[in-house]
What we know:
Gfo/Idh/MocA-like_OxRdtase_N, 34% helix, NAD(P)-bd_dom_sf, globular, Rossmann fold, alpha/beta
Amino acid sequence: MGNVQVGLLGAGRMGAFHGESIAFRVKGADLYAIADPVPGNAEAFAKKLGSNIKAFTNPLDMLEHPDIDAVIIASPARTHAANIIAAAKKGKAVFCEKPMAVTLEEADEVIRVVNEESVSLQIGFNRRFAKGFRSAYEEIRAGKIGTPQLMRSITRDPALGDPTSIPQWTIFLETLIHDFDTLLYLNPNAKPIEVYAAADALVRPDFKDKGFLDTAVVTIKFDNGAIATAEANFQAVYGYDVRGEVFGSEGMLTIGDIRHTNMTRYNKDGVSYNTIRYDQDLLFDAYVDELQSFVDAVRNHKPTSVTGEDARAALAIAAACIESCKTKQPVTLKDGVPQTV
């Protein structure tokens, strides 16, 4: 086929980056249309990117357009499942930002519809496309560190804004969901069997009574014996901190670097360096490469690299975390479903 004609649903912070990538950075794709329910947003962004890009306020109107081959969904997380289903029923291939859904019931319905309509679906777990994480995956698959035994994944955001509008359980469903997918990715063919989560409001304790949690540590046990931890905090004052570690029977891998460049400063105050403060700086190439992978899969009628089933597996861990926080007990996973007492 020729270039993939892409419709962008959501022109906010992440949507704008993806729209620019399709327009200027990704080969084999054209940004055909933009839809955003906020009046004027789509029109302004379309005008910025190109005179021929169509703009819609109602996303459903964009999905009706027959010339659109694929849709990028960058709307709020709680709308992802419904938007994927709407796009799939119109025969559009879908790239959706994480999470694919916020409940396992939604996730199962998404997978059912996508399979029924025979459309491509890829979920935006960008760390799989970051060079360090991909290199670690290849080393692990090649057996170069033996069997994974201890694993760690970290996400620390540089600054917490106003928590008022942040939904409950965001730390598991939208932040640590990346870490859960990373741990699954770096422990291939293993399944999580037990999850224990501890979380609190340490950055903004005044929001704890509203159900907002900004700090969490999760322990995950896998059926191959590996024990993993995933941790998150919404305010690392020193920068945007994303790292991973896999300790195996024959060695160890570490992944991630907070440095802005490899320049190190030596002066009267000691030794220091500048740090990255924004996700689109830290993961710029990964964000572009995941879209390139999606476009290539659609053009060549190949499977996508991060499937709905992958997204559901990470969501199952998030769901177990929520249950663990409620019960203050470990939660077992059986066939991808948290088991409640």
